[in-house]
Design brief:
The protein has 258 residues and is mainly alpha-helical. The protein has one domain. The protein contains 9 helices and no strands. α1 runs antiparallel to α2, α3 crosses α4 and α4 runs parallel beside α6. The mean pLDDT is 85.
Length: 258
């Protein structure tokens, strides 16, 4: 389980460090709670445009990634399969953890550290109870990482509900939920594209059992998934994703010029 945590949480730790530093000043400068809620929703939408496809691609390429990073003399096929089975749950929990940290900053911008502390303590207690159940009923390591992912997701929902206390922000919530559904669908499309490329690569190269083969598969499938996500994003018509579509167009323009 330790190897799965190391591989699954590392990219989201880097992403968290890059995203969370500028979030609090931006929220603090937004003005009142309603404006802060709107800015928080915009930040979450932009964050999900990175987190969702990243999560989907890591889950799809779990086995080649483990082969690339960890395979060796003492890490055989059985160990690769065991870690790859845990990686999707770790990725879901790590992605939800990044979203939760953004929500915590929303509370900090309101000078409210009590509510996220209460929610975090409750999530810690629920996670401990689920871990005990995993140990008692023999759910194994998969039960442990799944319980962490579940409690983190639940804490995200509770914190968003806490931000809505006393606010008439039904429109903001509906837009955010619609964006979450849209981005999740785009990420699934990118994952499907990566899956097709992975199947074709497996037919050509055989199972990615060596590091060179795994590296080739990871690079090819990731490139295909990113291109597919960006292409699908450009096809959307959601007004709240206009900024993200403009960023993709600018990036594509720079690449074409180079």
């Amino acid at each position: 389980m330790g190897f799965a945590l190391l591989v699954g949480m590392a990219p989201f730790g880097v992403l968290s460090s890059a995203v969370l530093v500028p979030v609090l000043p931006r929220l603090a400068a937004a003005g009142g709670p309603a404006q802060q809620l709107q800015v928080g929703a915009e930040v979450l939408t932009s964050l999900l445009c990175v987190v969702a496809p990243l999560s989907a691609l890591i889950i799809e390429l779990a086995r080649p990634i483990i082969v690339l990073l960890l395979s060796g003399r003492a890490f055989g096929a059985a160990e690769v399969a065991a870690v790859a089975a845990l990686l999707p749950w770790v990725v879901v929990g790590a992605a939800a953890g990044v979203v939760r940290e953004v929500l915590v900053r929303c509370f900090y911008a309101r000078s409210d550290a009590r509510f996220p502390l209460i929610v975090s303590c409750g999530a810690l207690g629920a996670n401990a109870a689920l871990d005990w159940a995993s140990y008692t009923y023999g759910w194994g390591a998969r039960g442990l990482v799944a319980s962490t992912a579940a409690t983190t997701l639940a804490s995200c929902g509770i914190m968003w509900a806490g931000l809505l206390r006393g606010e008439r922000a039904g429109g903001t919530t509906r837009r955010l939920l619609w964006d979450v559904a849209t981005i999740s669908a785009l990420a699934l499309g990118a994952s499907g594209c990566a899956h097709l490329v992975l199947r074709q690569a497996t037919l050509w190269l055989g199972p990615a059992a060596t590091r060179p083969a795994a590296a080739a598969v990871c690079v090819t499938c990731t490139a295909a998934g990113v291109v597919a996500f960006c292409a699908l994003l450009l096809c959307t018509r959601s007004p709240s994703l206009a900024q993200q579509r403009a960023a993709v167009r600018r990036l594509a323009g720079v690449r074409l010029q180079l």
